[in-house]
From TrEMBL:
PANTHER family: NOTUM-RELATED, PECTIN ACETYLESTERASE 4. Keywords: Cell wall, Cell wall biogenesis/degradation, Hydrolase, Membrane, Secreted, Transmembrane, Transmembrane helix. It is found in: Secreted, Cell wall. Hydrolyzes acetyl esters in homogalacturonan regions of pectin. In type I primary cell wall, galacturonic acid residues of pectin can be acetylated at the O-2 and O-3 positions. Decreasing the degree of acetylation of pectin gels in vitro alters their physical properties. This is Pectin acetylesterase. It comes from the Eukaryota. The lineage of its organism: Eukaryota, Viridiplantae, Streptophyta, Embryophyta, Tracheophyta. One of its GO terms (biological process) is cell wall organization. Pfam families: PAE. It is an enzyme of class 3 (hydrolase). Belongs to the pectinacetylesterase family.
Amino acid sequence: MGLLCFPLVSLVIHSFCYNKDKQTKYLTLHCNLFFWSFEAMANPRLRGWRKWAKKDWAIAAVGFTIILFALTLLFDSRNPTSSSSSSTFNLPSNHHLIPLTLLHRAKATGAFCLDGSLPGYHFQKGFGSGSNNWLLHIEGGGWCNSIETCEIRKRTALGSSKYMDPLIPFDGILSHQSSQNPDFYNWNIVKMRYCDGASLAGHPESEFKNGTKLFLRGQLIWEAIMSELLSLGLSKAKQALLTGCSAGGLATLIHCDDFRAHLPKDATVKCLADAGFFLDEPDILGNRTMSNFYHDVVQLQGVAKSLHKECITEMEPSKCIFPQQIIENIRTPLFIVNPAYDFWQIQHILVPAGSDPDGYWRRCRLSIQKCDSTQIENLQGFRSSLLKALSKLQHDKEGGMFINSCFVHCQTWMAETWHSSNSPRINNKTIAESVGDWYFNRKVTKEIDCPYPCNPTCYHMDFTQPS
Ligand SMILES: *[C@@H]1O[C@H](CO)[C@@H](O)[C@H](O)[C@H]1NC(C)=O
Ligand SMILES: *[C@@H]1O[C@H](CO)[C@@H](O)[C@H](O)[C@H]1NC(C)=O
Ligand SMILES: *[C@@H]1O[C@H](CO)[C@@H](O)[C@H](O)[C@H]1NC(C)=O
């Protein structure tokens, strides 16, 4: 089964990264995973990558697609451990590259990545009217739910700063160009790296089980990075926004009120979760795959202590990690950006590997345009569950949302999806414009797209097409 997929996936990645005609918008989603694994797994010494010629990239692509795919299989073969499309790479071009800062103060509290290395962040200073404003973005990349999967992760950039790229581009909501990021371009912008495997919410009491050496210290990492940023000027912020994508979107929800509590009372503080609204829904066989998966993450990493107390006194802690429960108790103004047909959720929650032994869903999982009418009906049901889970936020005066009917995942940290002439729009507004309207109280923003396939501004990911 895996072997059969190999040529297909390798072709997809290759053509997405290198086909000039068709690459356009979503190139980054694919190349992301590619470059992440490329950097992390293949050649940690590779520092001069900006200077590579096209030919070198092509050669590297062929070679490392193999590694990538082996990795994809590894992650995909069980539960939703996959980090696909939520990591952090764009193609090298004329991007401004921001260096990694290792958090030396983490030693004092033992706030280590899974392997015991120091965590890190990337920081670009604000200027002009943005000098006292701060935007923190938390990187995503799935979770690890067992000693085995955490052991694998600790040998990647998602579990160890040893493998993190020292320079990354800042795009979309992280960009310092006003054309790409009209409202936040001159703010202090920080990208927190994700290296604990539990959305920055693990606790050390639960580590060193069965003689393994894994540091489960996400909560300490969050606290140590916050402490450093507060000392760099965050403590005097006038306006601030905590955000993140995928597992980083979940981390945003988990830490939102704590972020607020650290900032001045008169500051404007809000939170934005991108593709982090994971649903507590059964898969197509009726199994609770995602719920079981989160149960294991929460148990393994002792996450309950980072969740709302109101919730864990009422129900099983692993229920309280689901965004629909978190938003019941969150007090800080919140905006949700999520596609209604989030391909990560479709591939891991609705139709996880193993739920479709006959392969009936094989093509539909990879491309919404290949779904038959019964499958589309299923997807519409998934969309309805998302809207239902968001109903509290719909009635919240300070809340906002942008739920577009596209088959994508993270959308805020790429110029192509955040704010450009051909980005996805609802009511003719880009995600950047919608988030800006909400943040600055310019307009109530609760944008919900009509159901698939009505929105012509959507670009749908197609993992079956070699362009
Ligand atoms: C530790 O090992 C025991 C026995 O082999 C097993 O039952 C248990 O699940 C393991 N704990 C973890 C966290 O893997
Ligand atoms: C999923 O559900 C099916 C049918 O209800 C059952 O046979 C199967 O064992 C379940 N699989 C898992 C992994 O729980
Ligand atoms: C959509 O917005 C753009 C500016 O962002 C504007 O030029 C265009 O006229 C608008 N189209 C419609 C149909 O309102």
